[in-house]
Write a structure and sequence with these properties.
Shape of chain A: elongated
Order of helices and strands of chain A: HEEHEHHHHHHHEEH
Helix content of chain B: over 70%
Structural class of chain B: mainly alpha
Distance between the termini of chain B: 20 Å
Radius of gyration of chain A: 26 Å
Number of helices of chain B: 5
Largest sheet of chain B: 2 strands, antiparallel
Strand content of chain A: 5-15%
Oligomer: heterodimer
Strand order of the largest sheet of chain B: 1-2
Number of strands of chain A: 5
Strand content of chain B: under 5%
Strand order of the largest sheet of chain A: 1-3-2-4-5
Structural class of chain A: alpha+beta
Shape of chain B: elongated
Order of helices and strands of chain B: HHEEHHH
Largest sheet of chain A: 5 strands, mixed
């Protein structure tokens, strides 16, 4: 019996089809990446600004109160959060010297920042604001439109929520419906009221500065602490002086 | 066009489909064009990652492997090799099992369907059928 032969291939036609499929595929994916735009989050202009509460770490009655106006997509804020803040937390906040409040100050030029702020605030509903805050800043390079060209940061934040052990469905429902929008706007309005023009802006006692190193931060805290101590001593003297005069 | 060539072309198409889903999952694409269905729900589920990586990324790897083997088996000295047919059948068989598992998750665990995933599963089934037919051809020829 004669051996059956396998049909000889038409290589040129084959190559032509592969090239055509390749061009179409690259074209479609390229188009989706460049024209899809960021996954839009509509911010309802009718949402009134809520109370400016910030997000507290440490004691609300610590001798020195520090406020940070931060934007999650701002690289300077990322540097502060990743490089300076760990020392601030372990050496000053944990010791009860500083009470630290993070105020959301999403800047309009940053396309993914609103989603990031919502993601962190929604994590707070489950008691994990600071964990999400840290994760978002640590991963800035993988979700930022500025540095990574990411169009749908929610996909990345969803992974973070999962990693942090959040109830992802509940968290996502909060993000998508923008439950904390009023609070974010309240925090933002507080920054506008204080004439904050860039991020990160830190207010240490009554001193307003931009991003600082830990050493400079500590110097400003020491100065604020000195003023607090002096003010306490003064107020202690006043009643005593008043009694003398009476 | 031989069956292996069809396999190569289909694998290339599948690779783009899986790349699209991977890029979405990694955040490089804003929204999935889904129409009816629940692509985002499926893509957001805990089954959408395996060993920390998007499942679709494994799909890219699978299609890439199928494409490379099919191209190698379509031109040059390997065009007459039966081992290529065996490899294609084994790879696509594995693909069918994995796609079946993912489809089971969609239907029975998530109760949602992502049409891109269904599309990919269909491609894998066609690849398997073509690979088996190719293997039969080469078995008869030898």
């Amino acid at each position: 019996m004669a051996k059956k032969t396998v049909k000889k291939p038409d290589n040129k036609k084959f190559a032509g089809i592969l090239v055509a499929v390749g061009i179409i595929g690259v074209g479609v994916i390229g188009y989706a990446m460049t024209h899809g735009g960021p996954k839009v989050m509509i911010v309802d202009p009718a949402t009134l600004a809520g109370a400016a509460e910030g997000h507290l770490m440490g004691k609300a009655d610590a001798p020195v109160q520090v406020i940070e106006f931060g934007d999650f997509e701002c690289p300077g804020c990322g540097n502060f959060a990743n490089l300076t803040e760990p020392d601030v937390r372990s050496r000053l906040i944990a010791q009860g010297i500083v009470g630290f409040r993070y105020y959301d100050f999403p800047l309009p030029g940053h396309k993914n920042t609103w989603t990031a702020h919502l993601s962190a605030s929604c994590a707070e509903e489950q008691g994990k604001f600071w964990e999400m805050h840290d994760r978002i800043y640590a991963g800035q390079d993988e979700w930022s439109d500025l540095t990574a060209g990411i169009k749908n940061p929610l996909a990345v934040f969803r992974r973070y929520a999962n990693e942090l052990g959040l109830d992802v469905k509940k968290w996502e429902d909060c993000v998508v419906t923008q439950r904390p929008a009023a609070r974010l706007k309240g925090n933002q309005a507080e920054g506008v009221r204080r004439n904050v023009g860039s991020t990160p802006t830190l207010i240490i006692g009554n001193q307003q500065v931009n991003s600082v190193t830990y050493d400079d931060f500590k110097k400003l805290v020491d100065k604020a602490l000195l003023e607090v101590t002096k003010a306490k001593a003064d107020s202690a003297k006043k009643p005593a002086a008043g009694k003398k005069g009476a | 066009m031989t069956k292996r060539m069809f396999i190569a072309v289909l694998s290339l198409g599948g690779m783009f489909l899986a790349s699209y889903l991977t890029l979405y999952k990694l955040g490089y694409i804003g929204e999935l064009v889904c129409g009816t269905g629940a692509c985002e729900v499926v893509q957001a589920s805990r089954w959408s990652r395996l060993f920390g990586q998007p499942v679709a990324l494994y799909g890219v790897g699978f299609y890439l492997a199928m494409f490379a083997v099919a191209v190698a088996g379509s031109v040059g000295t390997l065009a007459e090799s039966k081992k290529i047919s065996l490899l294609l059948a084994a790879l696509s068989g594995w693909g069918v099992l994995f796609s079946g598992y993912l489809t089971y998750i969609e239907i029975w665990q998530l109760h949602q369907i992502c049409r891109w995933c269904v599309g990919s599963a269909c491609i894998v089934v066609v690849l398997f059928v073509l690979s088996c037919a190719d293997l039969a051809d080469y078995s008869r020829a030898s």
